[in-house]
Specification:
Strand content: 5-15%
Strand order of the largest sheet: 2-1-3
Order of helices and strands: HHHEEHE
Keywords: Membrane, Transmembrane, Transmembrane helix
Pfam families: OppC_N (PF12911)
Largest sheet: 3 strands, antiparallel
Protein name: ABC transporter permease
Organism: Candidatus Afipia apatlaquensis
Distance between the termini: 89 Å
Structural class: mainly alpha
Radius of gyration: 31 Å
InterPro entries: OppC_N
Length: about 150
Amino acid sequence: MTIAPVPPVETTALSPIGEAVPPSRHPLGISPLNQRRWRNFKSNRRGYWSFWIFALLFLVSLFAELIANDRPFLIKFDGKLYFPAFVTYPETAFGGDFETAADYRDPYLQKLIKEKNGTVIWPLIRYSYSTHNLDLPTPAPSKPTWML
């Protein structure tokens, strides 16, 4: 029968010889080393404020589809509520002729919705990253204008 060697026991000035003392801190707390690192990071004002600005921009980017989208948030049409930003509806749901996905920027579809006293709530920016604006006042490679 072989006896496995016992690992040496750490002792401190506060613990009796032969008894191991676990670290005394909250299981979800930050270690003293990480607390010191955080204090050092906070003392660097430019880095600290840059971190918070970056975190805010990241949070805003999570809601980018709600800020800029070529589909409306909400359409009230014929007493029913539609949420095109989240669900794709065919054009026939709004009185159109085609079973394809509705193009909400199309003047014909907007006229159909308006005829039935429908309401459309758009995002702040009515363009998505892949939207092409075909109604430009000047040919395409020209300087931007505020009249759009």
